[in-house]
Inverse folding.
């Protein structure tokens, strides 16, 4: 499914590279071109770091365009587990044990 999303974003780059693809109130938007670049950059970095499809990668970021693009990049390489940045240390520890 993520590869299908990437294909849709790539089509957006072909037709409207500078059109906003991600919007979040009070945050910088991301164009289709920026979004695809960030997805590919994240996927490349994770792959070069040895992350595999069966691995789980935890992401802790506030909601927004940056979080969405990171989620897509991580998901294109491995399982992405977004966690709430407002969690307490004990809640993070719970997820690290599973």
């Amino acid at each position: 499914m993520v590869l299908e999303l990437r294909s849709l974003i790539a089509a957006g780059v072909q037709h409207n590279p500078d059109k906003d693809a991600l919007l979040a109130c009070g945050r910088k938007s991301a164009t289709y071109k920026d979004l695809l670049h960030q997805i590919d950059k994240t996927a490349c970095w994770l792959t070069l770091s040895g992350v595999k499809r069966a691995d789980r990668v935890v992401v802790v970021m506030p909601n927004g365009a940056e979080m969405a693009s990171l989620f897509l990049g991580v998901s294109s390489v491995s399982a992405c587990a977004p966690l709430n940045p407002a969690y307490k240390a004990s809640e993070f520890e719970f997820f690290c044990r599973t």
